[in-house]
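Weekly sync notes, structure subgroup
Attendees: PM, AL, DS (notes)

Item 1: joint prediction request from the bench team. They want all two components modeled as one assembly rather than separately. Inputs as received:
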Amino acid sequence: MGRSPEPGQAAAESALKEAGLAKRLWALTLTFGKFGGITFGGGYAIVALLEEELVRRKGWLTQDELFNIITVGESTPGPIAVNTATFVGYRLAGVLGGCVATAALVFPAWLVIVVVSGFYLQFRENAWVAAALGGIRVAAIVLIARAFLRMGHGVPRNAANALAFALAFLLVAVLGRNALWVIVGGLLYGVLWYGVRPRLKGGRP
Amino acid sequence: MLFWTFLKVGLFTIGGGYAMIPLIQQQLIERHGWVTPEQFTDFVGIAESTPGPFAINIATFSGVHVAGQHGLSPLLGSLCSTGGVVLPSLVIILLIAGAFHYAMRHWAVRAALEGAKPVVVGLIGAAAVTLLRHTLLPAGEPFHWAAAGFAVALFALTHWVRIGAVSLILLGGALGLGLRCFGVSL
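Output from the run, pasted for the record:
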């Protein structure tokens, strides 16, 4: 009661998981509502936010779980931000949590568009809006770069992984291939390299 | 009608917001004739400059627009289009999340997800580089030195000062406004 939360520790996680359903749903609403209101520029901005806020600060997720969520999100239909919100919500508070987190993520975006749609030409040509967005866009890039470095540290370092990383990066960044097929390729690589290969060599992993 | 159209869009686009542009375009412009190509370009511009997932923004905006054309309430229209685009992924992810715990018991699933890790890191790196390229080298314009300097300064700042993700975004917006006062546009 009235205890100040310890930042970024596992204590926060267990405290939340033991909290009542209403409290968990409220925390999900606040967190994903905030994400919905400040993410610009595509799905990976929210991935970066999840990494910083949910993995580092709140401890709602482990980095491994975040990897799994991104993999699932990239290989299933729908926007990746929505997919991750649903998944995290489900993890913390079941089906209801998934629905609440998704609705909270979508609501600010929906509200802003409904309000702005009446005068969108003025909005688009406003120099101050453009100036703020220019700054936000650069901040989002920095955020994604930070998430990239941190998540890179979470992957075991070996030659095969380095090759898989380089291939994925080149295919998407340089050749502009669809991320879906790259992820499918990654899943196949995993089955063969981490699943089948140790079994062929004999000995149970 | 809107609901079905966007349900289809939500169901058949895999891999994030920009993947759905061609499908939305085809549905709204060619199939139904609800939107002209020029209007669609405006839609994309607005969706990029408002907060939230790109797909949600473009669906909401289309819903408001189409409902207005047919004399319906824009709230109702946008609820249909936005709901339609979200619903497939909500249902699919809930099913997957429910089954995930059981699937993880199988070695092949664990191995596949382990192999996807370096690929995910590659995708995140690619997203950063693609965004950076669009920002620093906008189509038909010279290299954007101001934005490049700003990016380096912001990255250095986060290296020395602990700054949360949300604060960083807000700081970026505030500095963008501040620099505009000095005549520097990002």
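Discussion: The mean pLDDT of chain B is 77.
Action: AL to compare against the crosslinking data before next sync.
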